[in-house]
Amino acid sequence: MRDCSFVGTSYIDIPHNIGYYPDYVIVQLKMPDNFISEAQGTVFKKRVLNHGSKVCGVIMAYDGSKIRLWPSKKGNYDDPYGVFCVSDGWGTPIFKHTSASVYVQAWKFSPSDILFSRTDTRGSGISVSPTIPLPGPFDIDSHIFLVQSQAIDGNYANYVFEAAGSAISDGSAFFEEIGAVVYAYNENEVNLWYPGSGNYLIYIGGTWGYGAPTQASKTASVTVKVIKATSTLPGCGNSVCSSDWNNLNVSCSPIPHPNKIENAHSFVMGNTSVYTCMSGYASNGGESVIFYDGTQWETTDFNCTVPDPCPYTSSPMIYNLTTLQEKVIEMKKNLSVDIKNTSAYRRSLTCALDQRPSSAYVGYLGITILTLMGGLLLCADLSDLL
């Protein structure tokens, strides 16, 4: 946390000390009355153009080493700036703050938690579809949908600016230059909108960071990400954390062990516990997976008991010798098979047609031999008669 008074300051750099680009950054502004707002990455109004108007807010972007904040600064009229205000039809009376405590949160997700990522160079004159289909559907309650614009030129090249979910300007001359990417999404697609040729995807100038180097990018590298929001990062332990705004001290308390179940093993991973029965014991079929909700473990009726060693019952049967011999004869009779009822016996009574040429040759040879033998015997008998 950092207490910041933006009077006389064109921009503020806050090192994040991560050493690489975070995947997700939130900059919260806590007002003196304890209301909390957030910095954003878009500009919808360049400066105050008439007396009594206000331009308030903080623009945020980051790179691999720091987070930079550009507050709204004093312009043409007295006191038209602030880190937060509500006016011009958004609320009455005018509600404004010129200083705030800054609270920065940055995340680097595991690659397996980033379920979708697509980057395109976008801008006026570049033909890229504004609709990005997702491989989903993704449940919008358990995923984070991000759209980020990275500057590819200018004084803030490689800085990442967050897109906005709504627009408060139509880009007309009344508002002068704007710089924004606006997006909306559902579980199946993300839609993008950005200004035409007269405006920018990224803009720093006018009352924003008054006196700081300016940025006006008509093209940018726009990335769409879908991140799993139910992740447990490895290496952080299983802890429930709390913090306060005063000193940014974070206290962590380990998640308590789940209730012990007799004759069962418990495997805990993150906020999940899985019960399995020890060797020699059987489950009753109760719920074996329970979850920790931040305050207590779920209850379960799961238990493990020794299984019945003999699930089947029978009554003993006692026979005398005569009865036993009769039973054996009856069993042999029931198990024996009459040979005349077998298929082998039935096949032996009939001739099967054999279409093989070799079978025909054997038959012809047999007929020839029988004919010759019969002829020789006949000739011998005829010679005796003559």
Automatic annotation (TrEMBL):
Disulfide bonds join C277-C304. Keywords: Disulfide bond, Membrane, Sushi, Transmembrane, Transmembrane helix. The chain crosses the membrane at residues 361-380. Residues 250-306 form the Sushi domain. InterPro entries: Sushi_SCR_CCP_dom. This is Uncharacterized protein LOC111115839. It comes from Crassostrea virginica. The gene is LOC111115839.
